[in-house]
Write a structure and sequence with these properties.
Oligomer: single chain
Radius of gyration: 24 Å
Distance between the termini: 41 Å
Number of helices: 18
Strand content: under 5%
Low-confidence stretches: 1-5, 42-47, 454-465, 467-473
Mean pLDDT: 90
Length: 473
Amino acid sequence: MTTDVTTRPWWRTFGFGLAVLTLLGLAIRLVYVLAARHGVCGGGILIDGCPGDAWVYRHSANLLADGKGFISPVDYAVSRGRLHLASADHPPLLIVVLAGFSLVGLSSWLAHGLVVVAIGTVSVVVAGLLGREVGGPRLGARVGLIAAALVACSPNVWINDGNILSESPAILLVLLMAWTAYRCWRRPSWGRAALVGLTIGLAMLVRPESALLVLIVGAPITLAHHASAWRDRLGRFVLIGVVAGVVCAPWVGYNLTRFNHPVTLSTGFGITLANTNCDITYYGDRTGYWSPDCIPPFERARGEDQSDDEQSLRQVGLDYIRSHQRRYPVVVLARLGRMFNVYRVGQQVQFDYYEGRPTWASRIGLGFFYPTVLLAALGVVALRRRRVPISPLVGPIVLVVVNAVITFGHARYRAPAEGVLCVLAAVGLDAVVRRLSAARRRARGAPRTAPAPLPAAAAGASSGTDPAPPRSP
């Protein structure tokens, strides 16, 4: 006698499985941060943390908690506390979160590192929920648990949780965006469209390039939804963009009042263009990467601020691109090759070390990355056959590609795509397992088991095709 799914014991439910995988993900991250990562960057997170962006994030948060506002921690430290120069090195969301913990005394490298670990652990939960939504009523629980397991165990995900950087919140917010996008596609409503816009807006406050998600995700899940009237589809798409803009408006408005030149989300684009477009990064063994030696020496004149630096450095980068247009396509290919670990792979692992990534973890990540990409490709094919939109999962990958083309290639900056790659791989792995199971049944000559009756709303899923979402009232 077949046991009905509703009478399964609690230890075989989706919720219990997701809880176990979440605890597994937390354990892996804690071991990595507290033990396995010790010694990286001159001591690791337990002693003095890593230089570079991680240092900026932590000290920006502590200065904000001390009531000094969003100022440059580098200028403040060099001047021994005399200079309080307005700064927008990075968007504010991670800084604000860390500052909240600093306010209650949790301001050390370890404390801030554990905050990032918590963010990474929540990603396991959201990946499970997203996988269940993608899988639909028939396959959702299995796909969701596979997705949660991959995000919990993938070195390319938890390696980001070992440093105080924006990659971990970027992974979480992209997964949240994809989850809300699929919910909006299956059951369209103004409220669900607003949630998509909210998650994109929050992602923009972590990584500015996330603004592109309004177009590459928001448009396909709303405008192509033929079950709704055109006016409703267009309205929901506009709402996604408006809500994303409203979320970012306070930060943008604040920046517009405190710099010499207009600044929106950050001042990082100019320095990125400058240190990725020079002879060092266009020719030789660093092609497609970045180098601080690309930036020409300059002194900030009296009265100038970060916005003046940004404009000057942006012009340096653009001038070099214009004068080396014939070389630019080669550099772009090298950037993409570095981003996706197919060009100078060994060298890139060494470069990753200076970004706070242990060499052994990067090598394990390489071994995990290639089969994940293969399974993700199979997942895309499976979703297309079932007529499930792929833009919420493929959109972040497109975003990473655009970022590499414009800036440089680095595994760290692939982070927004890592979580959705795991979800796509879960779909692909589930499809492979089901194909193999069906082949074994046919080889044995066993009749296919008739599926259990499904509710009317899920009838379309019984043939492997997801039902069309109902028309909005």
